[in-house]
Specification:
The chain has about 100 residues and is α+β, with helices and mostly antiparallel strands. Helices cover about 30% and strands about 25% of the residues. It has 2 helices and 5 strands, in the order αββββαβ.
Length: about 100
């Protein structure tokens, strides 16, 4: 196997592992039963990658973080239009002003 193939294989494996970890951390919390009645506070715009699109991040009255539409497009945050995201995932991303 050539060195180029090995490098490509290692890169692909690292990418798959990275995406898998991200999916696990963003989906490990289940939606609270009373999420619809929660009040949401806008925390800011956040992106997975430095050059990636940014998304609205809200925190509900229970302290749970929610990732919603692209920045500035979320009208009514909640479980129907947003999904839960962990604080650990947010710490690895990029906050925008």
């Amino acid at each position: 196997m050539s060195k180029v193939r090995i490098v490509v294989l290692v890169f692909a494996l690292a990418l798959v592992i990275g995406v898998g970890i991200n999916l696990i951390t963003t989906n490990k919390i289940t939606t609270p039963a009373n999420a619809a009645g929660s009040s949401y506070v806008f925390e800011g715009c956040w992106a997975y990658f430095p050059a990636g699109p940014c998304y609205d991040i809200f925190r509900d009255s229970q302290g749970i973080y929610w990732i919603c539409s692209k920045c500035g497009l979320t009208k009514n945050p909640g479980p129907k239009v947003c999904r839960i995201i962990s604080a650990e995932t947010l710490a690895r991303g990029y906050w925008r002003s």
